[in-house]
Amino acid sequence: MRRSTARTRLAATAAILGAGCGPAPYTIGPEEPVATGEPPTIVVIRGGEAPAPARAQPAPSGDGWIPDLLPRFNPFAEKRTWVGSFDCPEGRTELTLRVVDARGTKVRAIFDFHHPPSDTSGQFLLAGEFDEHTGDMVFTPGAWIIHPDDYATLPLVGRVSRDGTHYAGRIPVPGCGGFRLRAVQ
Fold first, then answer.
1. What is the distance between the alpha carbons of residues 180 and 54, in angstroms, rounded to a whole number?
2. Mean pLDDT per 10-residue run, the chain (185 residues)?
3. Which of the 8 DSSP states describes residue 76?
4. What is the pLDDT of residue 102?
5. Dihedral sign computed on CA atoms, order 173, 158, 145, 142
């Protein structure tokens, strides 16, 4: 009788376990992949140089408006040569602004000018600071490198275009007017 009681208990346990619904439909084992309907993404990893980090871009908002006062990258850090002209009492003068150092918002450059009618050239140092919110750039003159007679150093007060390719403004010295420069390198 003991044997039949053990068999009866075993049969009853098997019947209870067998009466279940099986595994829950939401459980997936490691051998059961999930079908998403999209082809799998293939990732290729190649050795070599890492890509340059992307500049931070503002997240688009629902209405497409992007505020103008987001910080901008200092264009003088990448674009080292700016060419154009300025106007002062001697007339239109060619100008090349050569950036020698750019760290954060601070910039040091050489003001390299040539006045074609008189064939006069000169160079002096500039130091300035880029305002990353407004795009304003103010350069203060420093020491002469090549000092032609009857010429004085000049400050530049201007603004860089939103795309960072043009720098224009005024020379706040009596008799002088504006300047216009475009980035070439």
1. 30
2. 54 52 49 55 55 54 58 88 95 96 95 96 96 94 95 95 94 95 92
3. G
4. 94
5. positive
| Cα 77 from chain centre | 11
Closest by CA position to 156, among listed 79, 82, 73: 82
> 3-state DSSP call for residue 75?
helix
Question: What is the distance between the alpha carbons of residues 115 and 117, in angstroms, rounded to a whole number?
Answer: 6
pTM of the full structure: 0.62
Spatial neighbors of 80 by CB under 8 A, at least 6 apart, are 98, 99, 185
- Round to whole Å and give the CA distance between 157 and 173: 11
Q: What would the two tokens of residue 78 be?
A: 């990448």
Q: Which of 152, 157, 159 is nearest to 171 (CA)?
A: 157
**Three-class SS of residue 167?**
strand
C-alpha 102/C-alpha 183 separation (Å) is 15
User: The domain at 75-183 falls in which architecture?
Assistant: Beta Barrel (2.40)
Residue recorded with tokens 């068999």: 7
Kindly state the tokens that stand for 3.
């044997």
> Taking Cα atoms as reference points, which of 160, 184, 170, 180 lies closest to residue 73?
160
